[in-house]
Amino acid sequence: MSEEEFNLGFADDHDDWGLGVDPKNLNTLRCLNSHLSAEEDYYKDPRRRPRFSFFADAKLIPPDTLQLNRELAAHDVRPEDMKRIEGHGLKKIGQIRKEGANSICKRLRLHSSMRYALQNMLDNLPDPGAWNRVSKGRKADPFRVRLNKNETDRMPPRWAEGNFSIEIEELERSWKKKNGQTKTRSFRVRISTFDADAGVMTLRPDQWRPEQANEWADLLDRTNGPLHFREGADDYNTFRKSQAVGILIHEKTEQAKSLAQTIRDANKLPGYPRSINQEILLNPGLNLRSGMSAQDRRGVETQRLAVATGLSCPDISLIRGPPGTGKTTVICEIIQQLAVEQGLRILMVAPTHVAVDNVLERIGLLDGPNFLPGVYPLRHASNSNAVSSHLRMFTWDELSNGLRRRLGDTLEGGLQERIANDEINAIQKDWLQQLRQPTKGRDEDGEERQDIIGHMLKHNVNLVCATTIGISTGGKFEAESIPFDLAIIDEASKATLGEFLVPGIRAKRWLLVGDEKQLSPHVDQAKIGFILARMIWQHFIWEPQRKKDSKGGKRVWVAPLTKPDEKHVKANHMREGVPVSKDGNELTGFFAMAPEIQKMFEKCAEDVRISLEQWFEHRMSNNQNLRRQHQWRIFSSILNLRADLRDKWSVISYNSAIRKWEKEKEQIDNDFIRDIAKWENACTRTKAQHEKRVKDHEEYLKEIALYPEKLKKAESAHVAKEDERLNEHEQKILAYETAVADWEEKPKSERGSKPRQPTKFVSRKFTPPAKPKEIKQPGSYQKPKKPVKKVYPEKPVQRAKTWRRPPNKKPEIMQLYNQKTGNWFNAMWDKKLRQMVPLPGGMRSQRTAPHVSGAIKPWCLDMARADSLERLWRNLLMVADFEYNSGFELLAERLSNNKNQDRIVTLNVQHRMHPQIAEFNSSVVYGDQYFSGSRMMDRGVATRLLGTPLKKEDSLVLLDTSLFGNEAMEQLDRGQRGKYVNVAEAKVIVEAIDDIARDLSSIPHPEDRYWEIAIISFYKAQANAIQRALRVSDIVEPSGWKFLDKKTKSVRIEVNVVDRFQGREADVVLLPMTRANDRGKLGFMTVLNRINVATSRGKHRLILVGNARKLQEMGEKYDARTREDDSDQSMTENAAPSNFVSQLLDYVQRHGKSLQVSPKDLKNDWSSIDLVQKAKNKRRGRKR
User: Which is it for strands 510-514 and 948-950: parallel, antiparallel or unpaired?
Assistant: First the structure.
């Protein structure tokens, strides 16, 4: 029969995000909702939240009596400010509350850090009225609890920062629903501060609902022993995303309804007018000028089109732009046009605080040429420490406190004027009292406080900047009730769909700005691993619903392991040392499995996650073969887990059978030992009995021999006794006769009664002695029968390990015809023999697999339960879309199918870097559709590099470290996998920076600002090594987490990783390649997204540092593997391009300058520093 064409890439059928989605039901959002449910389970994992115990504090301490220096110890304040406060007799919290933090700082001229610390301290402590309201009549302090001192070592370090939640175990409530499921309500409270040294947690029950505060206080009053809690599940971000998806699905608000309709109808959104024509825009750089080159004109026209799209689009629009194409310039113009000219409220968000601050700074809210008048910004963050220090002036606390101070000064000035109107004075005093009260919590009567100043501020800012999730979390700015006219999501390619929806439901229109060919969203690997483990577990226990009439229920793969009986769950966990709550409510679903089995799923999920991530990252590489390999690795991991589970259950069953068999053997042995003991006792007893019978028989014979003589003696004795009786009777007769004669001789008057005559003598019958009882002859002794030992049962035989054949890109199972036997037989592809061979014995026969999912079936262990992996693969792709893919890319795919083609604008003229730097990304990443502005040719600066003078046009430089020997090879920091360090590159970079910083410090910046040098590493361990290496330099010095040149402080050096540098730029960029090995493993450098970001940050110069010779060899090995894979006849896809590293090195060597560096070129003393940290030796001692 002819061989069928196997479609190994059926995964591509599901690459389309919208495939199979019913627009009316928004199935994609429902899938996202299910995905977020798995996220919530991850954060609720009891293993991630250990159990702690605490005790009530019987000592009631009013907050105003607390020591000020003790409370300020956790804050970062200046020592001189502390001395000044102590010198003025300020020792108690009550003194600060009475006078006010602002007034004290103003009177004592304290630094703003002290004002922030005092205000923060007062916010975290209850006022006296609230404290009395909650603590009145209580035995224990409801505001403070003490932790078990023996458990302080297990507490997470982040607890020292406070502001975390815990769940009290004793206050949990559980009930059963109608469907039989158990529902649990957790009692979650927030810890405001935590003193790790004293083990004291501070709570704020005055801010809770009164019934919740009473329930908490009652528990403390009635309990003498320890109480228990777990850290609250850190699922706030997931909760916000789930909340946004729920609002969107049910269209609860007008904004949500509009967004839902927009997503649903993205393919058929109506057209709209968008034209700026010759209008003069506010930013001069966006206006057309005479004499512009054709390239510059096209770039400006595209930017103007992007502005028109952002201003005019009635629903959703996207601005796609490679690095340096003016995306921020467009955002600035749109904000100024809408906020200032049209009076609209704008929400500007980004995935990270760094990205938000970068955009806020680039918008020009600081002094600079792009300052936007009329824009009133608010930098929203739940923790102001996450905001860059120079932008904290725009945070809620700074704006609110400033407004309060100014209003308070005005009111105090009015009171000092002593206006005669008592009503006005009363109003002013009431306002002053309101200004001095806390803005959050409850008053003395338990009523919610109203923040009037906050309400005024909230409705007067016209630009709110926050992270995508941060807009809905924490802080004092509550955006829930404020609709925004436009939501701008910058760096949208790093935000997932769920993250986009959180700010999306708060706006009427949406503008996404990003570039999907740069970095993808940040991924929490542990979270993804758990979600995948849970998904694989659900796949193992899933089976299509059976018909009602069909026999049999739902079958589960190795049910005792994957879905254990409830009565065994708690015992299984306690047996393995897992802390379990009293009722074990947390051990349900995935967590019901034994910890050992959970680890098996998590190990499989880790392998799947790595392959899925690599599969996703190689979308841009066009290397279909490589994606197939990762796909088969995923299937192999899952199928191997199937085999592992069955083998595990086989081992468990075998061990159980062995234990039963050994128990039966032991029972047989014990029974035999008892029978032998009984037999020996019986032998002893019967022997003694036989001897006694023999002895008794001998005595009987003796008695029989003496019996005649005994009889004769008895007869003689009887005769003698009878004679004696007869003599006695005769004497009695004689005495009678004498007495009668005497009686008769007496006169009758004296006779008396006549004597009685003796009875007649009767002879007694002779009774012979008893004859001895006859005792028969006992005969010879008969020993009891000895017991026989039972036969042992047959020893159980362990089932052989499941046969496994790891996938090799060609898991084809087909039937071949045997001409000799005339039968068809199943065959598989053998990689070593390069031919089809029969399947191993024991495999069930089946028809030819029609496609790859059928080809996988023979790997399954039980064909009756073998299900297709297509459903699981679709779920895995959904995870990839929701976690690795961005909402920007997902929406771009849908909007690109819109027939009007008026929602996406692509900027393609860059104004950041020298054209030589940009041309590589243009040809490799953007298909030669990435151009440079005419003025970019002026980029460049002349400096020296390791003693070699560089011209202004030398924008691309390669520093080759091949001559450094072993130091030029990668090493593992602390011996940990994935933490790569290249010592030679770190040293060369420091030497290079010495020359560059020395020269740049004497050259004025063309934009009249400081010079920026960035060292961008692919690996965090290498970045840390370079930071340590910079400390040996005599030219630069550390300044916070950056470095400055010692001479003029005009050159700033920053060391960071690629992920932290997207959206930013620097004048000079040094890029350490790090990897150099004999295995041909290139790591991150095979991912085009990272290469694109790393090489597009430098404005004037890009310097590559690496072992060029070794990198070329590694590239050749990589390409050789690719060519070998391409030669496989089963693969018909396009051949993969050569690796990006080889292309980059080849491009730099052809268009730039290459310098060979040797150890002799190093000038600093490197003998005193070790850039690679050694692995810590684990001390192994005898267990005591």
Answer: unpaired
Asked if residues 490 and 327 have their Cβ atoms less than 8 Å apart, the reply is yes
Torsions phi, psi for 678 (to 5 deg): -65, -40
Q: How far apart are CA 540 and CA 533, in angstroms?
A: 11
pLDDT digits (tens, 9 = 90+) for 1143-1168: 888 899 899 999 999 999 998 888 87
Task: Show contacts of 1170-1173: CB within 8 Å, 24+ apart.
Answer: 1171/981, 1171/983, 1171/986, 1171/987, 1171/1025, 1171/1028, 1171/1029, 1172/971, 1172/972, 1172/973, 1172/981, 1172/983, 1172/1025, 1173/973, 1173/974
Q: How far is CA 482 from the centre of its chain?
A: 33
Tens digits of residue pLDDT in 680-732: 999 999 999 999 999 999 898 888 888 899 999 999 999 999 999 889 988 98
Cα 316 from chain centre = 33
> Other C-beta atoms within 10 Å of 93: how many?
23
DSSP 92: B
Across-strand partners of 320? 514, 906
Output the CA torsion sign for 563, 565, 571, 575.
Answer: negative
Residues 6+ apart with CB under 8 A from 540: 556, 557, 558, 562, 642, 645
Would you state the structure tokens that stand for residue 678, as one six-digit string?
A: 């009984």
Best CA proximity match to 101, nearest among 428, 448, 404, 343: 404
Reported as a single tens digit per residue, the pLDDT across 1009-1036 is 889 999 999 999 999 999 989 988 888 8
The helix/strand/coil state of 1079 is: coil
The Cα–Cα gap between 365 and 817 comes to: 78
pTM over 0.85: no
Q: What is the DSSP secondary-structure string of 595-642?
A: HHHHHHHHHHHHHHHHHHHHHHHTTTTT-HHHHHHHHHHHHHHHHHHH
CA atoms lying within 13 Å on the CB side of residue 1091: 26
- For the chain, give me the number of helices (H) and strands (E)? 32, 30
Looking at this protein, which amino acid is placed at residue 1042?
A: K
Q: Kindly write down the DSSP assignment for every residue of 1038-1056, as one continuous string.
A: EETTEEEETTTS-EEEEEE
Question: Looking at the DSSP assignment, which residues form a beta bridge with residue 168?
Answer: 187, 229
Query: Residue 669 has which token pair?
Result: 């042995």
Query: Would you give the DSSP letter of residue 338?
Result: I
Mean pLDDT calculated for residue range 153-159: 76
**Residue 519 in contact with residue 491, Cβ under 8 Å?**
no
Task: Indicate the DSSP class of residue 250.
Answer: H
Cα three-residue angle 347-351-355, rounded to 5 degrees: 85
The fraction of the chain above a pLDDT of 70, given in percent, is 80
**Strand (E) or helix (H) holding 358:** helix 353-363
pLDDT over threshold 80, residue 34: no
Closest CA to 1169 of 1039, 1024, 1072, 955: 1024
Q: Decide: helix, strand or coil at residue 1183.
A: coil
Is pLDDT larger for residue 445 or for residue 484?
Answer: 484
- Say if CB 274 and CB 305 are below 8 A apart: yes
Residues near 717 by beta carbon (within 8 Å), at least 6 away in sequence: none
Q: What percent of the chain has pLDDT over 90?
A: 21
Contacts of 927-931 with CB under 8 Å at 24 or more apart are: 930/322, 931/295, 931/298, 931/299
DSSP letters for 836-893: EEEPPTTPPP-PPPSSHHHHHGGGSS-TTT---SHHHHHHHHHHIIIIIS-HHHHHHH
- Mind listing the pLDDT tens digit for each residue in 531-548? 898 888 888 887 555 444
Q: What is the pLDDT of residues 842-898, one digit of tens each?
A: 544 444 333 333 333 433 333 334 445 667 777 787 788 788 888 888 888 888 888
Helix (H, G, I), strand (E, B), or coil: what is residue 384? helix
Residue of 492, 438, 443, 484 whose CA lies nearest to 464:
484
